[in-house]
Design a protein that fits this description.
With 590 residues, the protein is of the alpha/beta class. 29% of the residues lie in helices and 17% in strands. The protein binds alpha-D-glucopyranose.
């Protein structure tokens, strides 16, 4: 089929360089280990640049690799300016940037600006009594109990005594040596146990006080530092919780605290200010904000180009359709109608407001989508490619999480001993403590743990999946069946991803077209159309392992098949299509 050269600009004439891009996420600890210590590193990633380039992606998002005690796998940063020696050096980083650039691939760094590790110099200086640094965090006295009733997202209260007791927090000298920092120079007796500091995440992740202009300046400096190293992409971790109300009020009901500190009006202002002081000065920068429990209206404000804030946002509503009453640590089959409703609402809503979504099923915090929404045993290839179609054909910028493109699944762990994530371990304890049987608690962790996504990339079928010559920090389980080498030789998922990535570059209707849900009541098929001028696409995705029939609009009958995940699907000749298990079809007409 022929196609006219696509426009690089959106209808409004704004440069939208990221609409036809695909971003690949690499979890550095788990991608490739170059030195045999069992932990992935920057040199390992450099070694795999040819593979990354072969995918056709435009940018690589790297999870944090900065100096950190690794209590939350690098999201607890002790120094924003240095590479954690366990993962490499600044030279290694520069080499990686250059190797990617040689293939036209940019780098996206993970900026964790809501909190620092309690091992960060700022926190340590606060502990040592420097009042100026106390104002970098939320440090408050408690008259009765704790300063307020907020809870940590990783379990327990969101407040901890303001003391330097790193040993009791599980940080040892050995951790410090390995990860390139000196432990608690202020001494374990420093601080003031009558005061408390706020931590919305782990107790070693102290929330930064963004109301303090010095904090905002320091953080903009961090972003500029990495821009000067040639970085043009930034992912901002939990950026919509940076605007806590200054008086830190208690929630009236136990679970309402989130609403008090999420998406407050000042967040937009802070993001704009950060943009103006750093990445916004680079017209080619690509940014994505991680938005927890957010709304369409806020996400439009964060991403409408007129607002000069972010390029796009991650929201997580579609990944909560298998939560019971919004609680992650529970189990139920996904609610397909709710999933469809959310895609439709966000797709249409963001477009109406001129906003832009990041599109994704997987990341380092989510169990593998293939296990949640597909059938990794009966229809692994079909369901993996169907899920990919649904995301890559939508309006937004697709993200592919390492291993997704070869159909990696959750590991088949049989005991809690295999899990290392602090969140999973806390959740298991809390479930059992509140009366859930150990069996059910394990089943829940098994299906929800973040470790599910963090197992090593499976390069080949060898004992450690070609990831390391040492002992992997997290154990892979099914590399004999699922691995890159096998996919390259005769697999169907990897070529399908490559094709989807190329299509987005070729067809303006995919990268720029408007989005409209179709057959909203269909019980099994997610369907939508995309329109750009006279070009139209119809996308159909059967989310079930059974056949199902769907009627299609007459204008698509006889249209060309742009891509389909059953090779024998060459045409759609009538307006009734019988879709096979997990079948996905994209039809084009003009
Ligand atoms: C984000 C990260 C997650 C981390 C948390 C706290 O949600 O994706 O991995 O634990 O922020 O920084």
């Amino acid at each position: 089929m022929t196609y006219e050269p696509k426009m690089g600009r959106s209808m409004q004439g704004v440069v939208t360089g990221f609409h036809d891009k695909t971003i690949y996420q690499v979890y550095p600890k788990s991608f490739c280990d170059s030195d045999g210590d069992g932990v992935g590193d920057l040199r390992g990633i450099t070694r795999k640049v040819p593979y990354i380039a072969s995918l056709g992606v435009d940018m690589v998002w790297l999870n944090p690799f900065f100096v950190s005690p690794q209590r939350d796998n690098g999201y607890d940063i002790a120094n924003y300016y240095r590479v954690n020696p366990a993962l490499g050096s600044m030279d290694d980083f520069e080499e990686l940037v250059a190797a990617l650039r040689a293939h036209g691939i940019g780098v996206m760094l993970d900026m964790v600006l809501n909190h620092t590790s309690t091992q960060h110099e700022w926190f340590q200086r606060a502990l040592a009594g420097e009042t100026e640094y106390r104002d970098f965090y939320y440090i408050r006295p408690a008259t009765s109990g704790l300063p307020n009733n907020w809870v940590s997202k990783f379990g327990g209260p969101a407040w901890a005594p303001f003391t330097g007791n790193s040993a009791s927090l599980g940080i040892t000298d050995a951790d410090a040596a390995r990860n390139g920092f000196t432990r608690n120079p202020a001494g374990d007796d420093s601080g003031d146990p009558t005061l408390y500091y706020l931590h919305l995440y782990d107790v070693t992740q102290a929330d930064l006080n963004w109301h303090n202009p010095r904090v905002r300046n320091e953080l903009a400096k961090v972003v500029r530092f990495w821009q000067n190293k040639g970085v043009q992409g930034f992912r901002f971790d939990v950026i919509n919780v940076i605007g806590k109300p200054e008086d830190l009020p208690s929630a009236l009901r136990g679970t309402d605290d989130k609403r008090l500190y999420t998406d407050t009006p000042i967040v937009e202002q802070y993001i704009k200010e950060l943009a103006a002081a750093s990445f916004g000065r680079d017209p080619e920068s690509v940014t994505v904000g991680e938005m927890s429990s957010t709304s369409i209206e806020r996400c439009i404000a964060y991403t409408n180009p007129d607002n000069k804030a972010l390029s796009m946002v991650f929201n997580f509503h579609h990944l909560k359709v298998d939560y019971v009453d919004g609680h992650k640590w529970s189990r139920k089959p996904f609610d397909f109608q709710e999933l469809k409703r959310l895609f439709a609402q966000w797709g249409v809503g963001m477009e109406r407001g001129g906003g832009w979504n990041a599109l994704f099923w997987n990341n380092h915090d989510q169990p593998r989508a293939l296990n949640r929404f597909g059938d990794p045993r009966g229809y692994r290839v079909e369901s993996a490619t169907m899920l990919a179609t649904a995301i890559h054909m939508m309006r937004g910028t697709p993200f592919v999480y390492m291993g997704e493109e070869i159909g990696m699944t959750d590991p088949e762990y049989a005991s809690m001993d295999d899990y290392v994530d602090i969140e999973a371990i806390n959740a298991y304890r809390e479930l059992v403590a509140t009366g859930t049987s150990t069996q059910e608690a394990f089943a829940i962790v098994h299906s929800k743990a973040r470790d599910n996504a963090r197992t090593p990339m499976q390069w080949d079928d060898s004992a450690h999946a070609g990831f390391t010559t040492g002992t992997p920090w997290l154990r892979p389980t099914n590399q004999s069946m699922i691995n890159v080498a096998a996919e390259e030789a005769s697999g169907k998922i990897l070529p399908y991803y490559r094709a989807l990535i190329v299509l987005r570059k070729k067809y303006a209707v995919i990268s720029e077209g408007s989005y409209e849900p179709y057959a909203e009541d269909h019980p099994r098929v997610l369907a939508f159309t995309r329109t750009f001028g006279n070009d139209r696409l119809l996308v159909l995705a059967n989310f079930y392992g059974e056949e199902t029939m769907i009627q299609i609009p007459p204008e698509f009958v006889g249209g060309s098949i742009v891509i389909a995940n059953y090779e024998d699907r060459k045409a759609v000749a009538t307006n009734r299509v019988v879709m096979r298990p997990y079948e996905a079809i994209t039809i084009w007409q003009r």
